[in-house]
Fold this sequence. Notes:
Layout: E1 4-9, H1 13-24, E2 30-36, H2 43-50, E3 54-56, H3 59-66, E4 72-75, H4 80-93, E5 99-101, H5 103-113
Parallel strand pairs: 1-2, 1-4, 2-3, 4-5
Helix pairs in contact: 1-2, 3-4
Amino acid sequence: MRRINVAIAGLGRVGSQFLDALLSVRSDNVRVIAVAEPKEDLQSVKLAKEKGIAYFRDARSMLESLEDSIDVLFELTGDAVVKSDLHEILVKTGNKKTVIVPEPVAYLIWSLITEGAKEYPR
């Protein structure tokens, strides 16, 4: 069985609820291995730490540290500079494994994992 290692950059309104939704999925195939959020006092950061998920204050350092052990990186920071920097890191390190998923695709996945039962946070 293939396991997908997921990381989330940004645990604000969207990212925190996305983390909750991913953690509620009952599957050994999907594992959240890391999160990045500069505001360490957020409840979503505390939850991630309680679940044994690696925590980083910066998405760039998360990607550089974990390199290609991340299969899917949900970029939910809303910061165009961070988004651009993440793509540059992939190129610089030659990481061809990690896929950076933008928010529109996260919305699609949200709809599938919540089966439309929860409204997407805005």
